[in-house]
Amino acid sequence: MSRAADPDPVQLAQGVLSGDRRALARSVSLVENGTEEGRRVLAAVYERSGRAHIVGITGAGGAGKSTLTNGLALEFRKRGHTVGVVAVDPSSPFTRGALLGDRIRMQELTKDPEIFVRSMATRGELGGLAAMTADVVAVLDAFGKDLILVETVGAGQDEVEIAGTAETTVVVFTPASGDDVQAMKAGIMEVADILVVNKADLPGADALLSQLQAATTAASRGRLEVPVLATVASKRQGIAELAGAIDEHRERLEHTGRREEQRADRARRHLLAIVRESLLDAALAGPLADGTLEELIQRVASRDLDPYAAAARLLGD
Amino acid sequence: MAPDTTERPIRVLIAKPGLDGHDRGAKVVARALRDAGMEVIYTGIRQTPDMIAEAALQEDVEVVGLSILSGAHAELFPRVVQALKDRGIDTDEVLLFAGGIIPDDDIPALKDLGFQAIFRPGASTQDIIAFVRDWAATRRDGG
User: How far apart are CA A98 and CA B14, in angstroms?
Assistant: First the structure.
């Protein structure tokens, strides 16, 4: 059977809800591709989502996020949860290609049928990444995964956006990240629910731990307390404690009523991201196809036209 | 040529079954396909047939490329094909190709198994890219 003869969305959705992993994989692709079929699958499974706990794992490249995600998935399985993993890597803005290598550090997960790992490229979507991630997470959630780990690309705006899809955001540092800590503090510290110093067996770990402690104390006024933990993911050290902190965060969200608030926040972000993207698509489809967009871009580049005037033409004002 | 922004990228799994740990060739192919605009999932060395098939299922790839240098292809490749079939993935649905040290005599058997091309040391990455693209173009046009 070819791709052209994909099963219909209703059938796929039924597959997802009845635990068919192949249907899940195919549904994730459709949703990721932003197709009409994908939207219909999402529509059919959406009411069954909202049960999973969604955990974002973020931090600079080389911080050991994949290894940590691997350890966490195994730990939560030990605790009896089923696990979904979404591992995001960057697409090249020039070729749109991507090398998705997170599975290298998650080989053990492939042996457990109750763990589903999906690699996802950022695809250079104009602000569409957050919506795409939220869509994929919703399908895994509806499938019945108890816990969904979303591992993100590295530092940057994407991180903050993706953090918006998670209920618990874990930010990972290493003693080697040094100056990065300063750079990351601004946006990332505000979204962090748990801070981790990974590779904590390296020199400088203690200093970084106390630095982060101090930073969270200053930043956490009016928020839930942000724990700072040490791990050595490659040796499975500190993983159980991290899993414990994630569980605790979830409980606190529930007890304080913060979870309901967060749900509304996430729904708002998801909805607005979709609206933004749809408006953009609708506005640009024609100009993209007939070359007007490219022509206007050139005119702005050569200062023949200012960008607001160009935008007004695109929007038909 | 500007990439067609409406076309979704081709998803490819590159895997190394068996025990040999030399993955330079696999990485070269993975990077070449990435640079050609594909989304390449690279799973690393020492993959069992079940791990490869499971990754192909979860990642919903259209293309699976196996790299092997150990000479164990005659033993391992049928097991990969079987592991895919066990998961409902038919070899006429997914493009299978192989690269590595594979003697002439073994090629007919691999083709019978469903491997549509065998690339040996010295094969150009351009050939591999063209091969995958052609297949995907035919497949997506409605094949």
Answer: 13
**In terms of CA atoms, which chain B residue is nearest residue A90?**
B39
Domain extents in chain B:
11-140
Residue type at A8?
Answer: D
Domains along chain A? 1-46 (no CATH), 49-256 (3.40.50.300), 270-314 (no CATH)
Q: How far is A89 from chain B (nearest CA, A)?
A: 10
Does ipTM exceed 0.95?
A: no
Are B139 and A116 in contact (CB < 8 Å)? no
Nearest residue to B59 (alpha-carbon basis) of A121, A10, A294: A121
Number of Cβ within 10 Å of residue B8's Cβ equals 16
CB contact under 8 A, A118 and B58: yes
The string of pLDDT tens digits covering residues B81-115 is 999 999 999 988 899 999 998 999 999 999 999 99
Q: How many CB pairs under 8 A join A and B?
A: 99
DSSP B10: P
Task: Show the tokens assigned to A118.
Answer: 């999906």
Domain B11-140 has CATH 3.40.50.280: yes
Q: What is the pTM of this model?
A: 0.90
Is B26 within 8 Å of chain A by CB?
no
Q: How far apart (Å, rounded) are the C-alpha atoms in residues B13 and A141? A: 25
A1, A29, A98 member nearest B93 (Cβ): A1
